[in-house]
Amino acid sequence: METHIRKADHLRICLDENVQCRHVTNGLERYRFTHACLPEIDRHDISLASSFLGKPLGAPFLISSMTGGTELAKTINQRLAAVAQQYQLAMGVGSQRVAVEDPTVVATFAVRAIAPTIPLFANLGAVQLNYRYGLDECRRAVETLEADALILHLNPLQECVQTSGDTNFRGLLEKITLLCQTLPVPVIAKEVGNGISAAMATRLIEAGVAAIDVAGAGGTSWALVESERATDQRQRRLGRTFADWGLPTAECLTQVRAIAPQIPLIASGGLRDGLDAAKAIALGADLVGMAFPFLQAAHASEDALYELVDILIAELTTAMFCTGCETLGRLRSPGILQKI
């Protein structure tokens, strides 16, 4: 029951309260594209097609992990899945811990029938491997979703601020290594808004993760979200103190790509439009994840979601056209993106 309440609280707080980082940004504003006044391409020839972990995509967007476990979450997930299928976008669901503990809510996550061909990612907190979770629970999360990969989210700060959070992270890397060796689908390591550094990425890659979502600071602050939920003044203050903790997304991207040129890399954390997406791709991202913009639109209506994806695609395409890039790979050409 506590997990169900937490899920409902998270949705309400993210939609109704200002829990965005207060002072830290995603860092992408420090970069500017070199404008091509003569792009020498036809805008209609620009292709956003890509792939991730061997799965084709119509555009390089990930509807990042958000929710599940409640009736409102079910509606939101179904709307998200419909738009993901229409545009062939990747999609992750919120933490499935609630569904592992209570199988009656599995349907609030189950979207494969709506989105039969998209890359779909299951999701569990990595720390649960220290709280009686193992291969069976992870396999169940994947199988009930019919997922193509499992996201293991890493959230030490959130657990510290969350009342009675799970804070035993000792020996977790060894368990992640074992899971990567035994789970029949790829494992993706993801932060929740505080970033993954080059040093941490190195350890995760050595453990066997197939991809990394840097999920840097600059967007929704889960310290603030848990501060809003807290029932005592101590936890409220703790969340406010650490509201802007973490590495900006752009810094994470450049760090991780420098030490791991080949690892499939997701950029998320405070990205809000297609220009942010273009910059993230230019810095080395293979996939661009957004949560808050999709949550707002999905809560409004399915039509609002289609409008959002349409403008994201238009923004990314415009950035490519005005830099003379017909393909996503060309965005990474030397001199196209400058640090200012």
From TrEMBL:
FMN binds at S64, S65, M66, T67, S95, N123, K190, T220, G270, L271, R272, A291, F292. Belongs to the IPP isomerase type 2 family. This is Isopentenyl-diphosphate delta-isomerase. Its cofactor is FMN; NADPH; Mg(2+). Keywords: Cytoplasm, Flavoprotein, FMN, Isomerase, Isoprene biosynthesis, Magnesium, Metal-binding, NADP. Homooctamer. Dimer of tetramers. It comes from the Bacteria. Involved in the biosynthesis of isoprenoids. Catalyzes the 1,3-allylic rearrangement of the homoallylic substrate isopentenyl (IPP) to its allylic isomer, dimethylallyl diphosphate (DMAPP). Residues 173-332 form the FMN-dependent dehydrogenase domain. Mg(2+) binds at E159. It comes from Stenomitos frigidus ULC18. InterPro entries: Aldolase_TIM (IPR013785), FMN-dep_DH (IPR000262), IPdP_isomerase (IPR011179). Its EC number is 5.3.3.2. The gene is fni. CDD domains: IDI-2_FMN (cd02811).
